[in-house]
């Protein structure tokens, strides 16, 4: 048994040490907002926060996690950045198919926390590993600028 801090609550997990956090969240804790994409750390569909930083859940095994680490999923993300990103996502009508959106929102929230007034280059670097086949990247960028309180650059 291991104890993790997920969305501000301690949870007990009975899993093998090499089990990816992605599957612990989805299968053991029924937190399905974190999506499976590639499983090898390149698509970004499983982006969540660990201690406030964007991380890939498919690359974090139970053995790498500690009870003091604060794991936040799309179901638990809160705060000024999260509120601004959610509002901007709706205002700009970002979502098309929606599959990657939880990861996009998580990456955007982490970016705005670290860089309150990001440039287009900052946004591209922070969200660059996420594969969106719908191609909503221009709307994602516009929404992040809106959430940051700035007019879109470009």
Automatic annotation (TrEMBL):
Write down the superkingdom of origin. Answer: Bacteria
Query: Which SUPFAM superfamilies does this UniProt record tie to the protein?
Result: 2Fe-2S ferredoxin-like (SSF54292), CO dehydrogenase ISP C-domain like (SSF47741)
- Every copy of the 2Fe-2S ferredoxin-type domain together lies at 1-77
Keywords, comma-separated and alphabetical:
2Fe-2S, Iron, Iron-sulfur, Metal-binding, Oxidoreductase
Q: Which InterPro entries match?
A: 2Fe-2S-bd, 2Fe-2S-bd_dom_sf, 2Fe-2S_ferredoxin-like_sf, 2Fe-2S_ferredoxin-type, 2Fe2S_fd_BS, Beta-grasp_dom_sf, Diverse_Oxidoreductases
Tell me one GO molecular function of this protein. Answer: metal ion binding
List the protein's name. Isoquinoline 1-oxidoreductase subunit alpha
What EC identifiers does the entry list?
1.3.99.16
